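Worked Example 4.2. Consider the chain below.
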Amino acid sequence: MRTRRLGSDKGSVLIEVVAFAVIGFGLVLTLGLQLMEQERKVLELQGIARNSMRAYLLQPTSSLAEHVFRFQDQSKLWTEERIDISVKCLPNTCNVANTVIWLELNALDVDAKSFGVSSG
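Applying the procedure from the previous section yields the following structure tokens:
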């Protein structure tokens, strides 16, 4: 007949493996959620840049910054944040026909770019 010793470590390895697996899964899940939130911010800022450029090309009477601010106000993620706007044109004047316009938005270490060709 076998007797059970009180100091036996049998079975504790399984408990340790399960505990480490739960902790590891929690860390991976947390990291994944943070990466998804960062990607969500990137996609939202890219959407603001594209929609602003499109609206400006369709209605060039308003400035490009006004279109960015309008789409920023409609955004759920970027309403309260400061967005830096940079506009470059080739050639140097933006209101000439067939000018390539580059729009760059920067906020919280997130960058978004969009370009368009003005009709004049």
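The two ends are 97 Å apart (CA to CA). The chain has a mean pLDDT of 87. Compare this with Example 4.1 before moving on.
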